[in-house]
């Protein structure tokens, strides 16, 4: 029978399963992390686990926190297994499992408890994995002061309901107590994520206390970072794998690819763990590495997501085995995405693209097209539209990027090419569908969604290219437009 995961069960696990060799009882939390999801545990928690394993920095353990109702369920599951996580690396050359022990607790999902934990002088970093859409940005990428959560927290700073309101209350408490401010570290896939996080924190503070906002600007560090590790959602397939292959009953296991990258701006006034000892890279300027990843990898995911969904592909590796999808990805990257990037010393964009193609094609990951399609109204403005703006500013070709938007528009209608319904997976699905249906008669109607496109939807070059691609997509179908752009033969 599978063993329920716990500290007591560790000695009884199969000898091939790696587990903490350090004394977890001696760990002390130095990082409070908000958003204990799969990516955090496959990434930051893995790096810290490895760092503790080599005998370093045991005062930098993770204390979990959450602000959403679903976080309470994650807390309950992890508490029952002593905050341990089973992490399976999906290497096509052989799967491996490791029990991560770098987390020491999880504060109750309650604003007062979270603020109290953030106010503890032992916490020197507050880190965030709250999704790309969690930073209260408008269509132009600026702080959205009108969002109801921000309006609430600005009016009631002593009773916050957003993580940023909680950060402000904790920083204020530390300031009054004479405790140095913690560093705020975003671990989300956002261009200049540290700057974005700083903009939201100071923007909210300015609504109620401009002088406090100025103090934050002068005294609180918000380092930029680039994070990378493909981490599928956990479902029955993944739970069964952990149970059947490794003999562990884990209520919240994580599976991921055998690749990670973490590039951080070295800006931690209150200190930091020596993550460079276990493969992280600290640099003075993250921006070019960050843009490379956001445009080639995240933009690549967006590019394959919608045509693959329309063609009925479920798994990403199956989509990549479709020669038309693979050719579409490579052509779009080489012709329109990579040319927007500035050179990075000792980095080959062609080699990086080849690595991305290999990672997307890994059949062990089991990553799904529905996951890639999720939350397009937040992801497209982060991963596709900035590239499109750069191409338009340069007067360069945009046929492929316009086609990517056309695929998304067609997807938002809610049916695949064979008529199969596509379940909505975007908080703005109803609005997107209304614009997408209207675009059948007037393609520009989709671009008039200012919450997504802002003023970009009024650009005449984009309107022309998008209208042309969407019309052809409606008339001829997905495979015909893929062939016209990338030239690959049909897989059908």
From TrEMBL:
Stored Pfam families: Mannitol_dh, Mannitol_dh_C
GO molecular function: oxidoreductase activity, acting on the CH-OH group of donors, NAD or NADP as acceptor
Coiled coil regions in record: none
Domain called Mannitol dehydrogenase N-terminal: residue spans: 30-276
Oxidoreductase among keywords: yes
Domain Mannitol dehydrogenase C-terminal: 285-473
Keywords, alphabetical: Oxidoreductase
Protein name: Mannitol 2-dehydrogenase
Oxidoreductase keyword on record: yes
Xref: InterPro entries: 6-PGluconate_DH-like_C_sf, 6PGD_dom2, Mannitol_DH, Mannitol_DH/Oxidoreductase, Mannitol_DH_C, Mannitol_DH_N, NAD(P)-bd_dom_sf
Domain of life assignment: Bacteria
């Amino acid at each position: 029978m599978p063993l329920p995961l716990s500290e007591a069960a560790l000695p009884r696990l199969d000898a091939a399963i790696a587990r903490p060799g350090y004394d977890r009882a001696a760990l002390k939390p130095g990082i409070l992390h908000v958003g204990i999801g799969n990516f955090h545990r496959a990434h930051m928690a893995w790096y810290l686990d490895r760092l503790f394993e080599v005998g370093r920095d045991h005062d930098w353990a993770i204390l979990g926190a959450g602000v959403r109702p679903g976080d309470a369920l994650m807390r309950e599951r992890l508490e029952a297994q002593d905050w341990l996580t089973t992490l399976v690396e999906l290497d096509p050359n052989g799967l491996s499992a490791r029990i991560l022990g770098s987390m020491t607790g999880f504060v109750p999902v309650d604003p007062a408890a979270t603020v109290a934990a953030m106010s503890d002088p032992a916490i020197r970093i507050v880190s965030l994995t709250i999704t790309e859409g969690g930073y209260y940005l408008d269509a132009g990428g600026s702080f959205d002061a009108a969002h109801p959560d921000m309006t609430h927290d600005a009016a009631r700073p002593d009773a916050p309901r957003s993580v940023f309101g909680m950060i402000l209350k904790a920083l204020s408490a530390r300031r009054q107590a004479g405790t140095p401010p913690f560093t705020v570290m975003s671990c989300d896939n956002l261009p200049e994520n540290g700057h974005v996080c700083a903009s939201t924190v100071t923007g909210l503070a300015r609504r109620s206390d401009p002088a406090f906002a100025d103090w934050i600007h002068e005294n609180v560090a918000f380092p930029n970072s680039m994070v990378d590790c493909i981490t599928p959602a956990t479902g029955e397939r993944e739970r069964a794998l952990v149970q059947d292959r490794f003999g562990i009953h884990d209520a919240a296991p994580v599976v991921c690819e055998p690749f990670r990258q973490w590039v951080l701006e070295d800006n931690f006034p209150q200190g930091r763990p020596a993550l460079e000892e276990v493969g992280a890279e600290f640099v003075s300027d993250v921006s070019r590495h960050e843009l490379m990843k956001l445009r080639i990898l995240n933009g690549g995911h967006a590019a394959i997501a919608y045509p693959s969904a329309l063609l009925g592909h479920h798994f990403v590796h199956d989509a990549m085995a479709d020669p038309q999808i693979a050719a579409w990805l490579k052509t779009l990257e080489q012709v329109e995405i990579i040319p927007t990037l500035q050179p990075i010393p000792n980095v080959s964009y062609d080699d990086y693209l080849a690595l991305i193609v290999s990672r997307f094609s890994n059949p062990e990951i089991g990553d799904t097209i529905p996951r890639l399609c999720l939350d397009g109204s937040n992801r497209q403005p982060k991963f596709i539209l900035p590239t499109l703006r750069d191409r338009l500013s340069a007067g360069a070709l945009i046929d492929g990027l316009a086609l990517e938007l056309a695929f998304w528009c067609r997807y938002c209608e809610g049916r695949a090419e064979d008529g199969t319904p596509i379940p909505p997976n975007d908080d703005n699905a109803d609005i997107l569908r209304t614009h997408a249906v209207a675009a059948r008669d007037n393609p520009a109607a989709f671009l008039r969604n200012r919450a997504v496109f802002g003023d970009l939807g009024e650009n005449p070059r984009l309107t022309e290219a998008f209208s042309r691609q969407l019309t052809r997509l409606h008339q001829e179908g997905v495979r015909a437009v893929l062939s016209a752009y990338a030239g690959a033969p049909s897989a059908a």
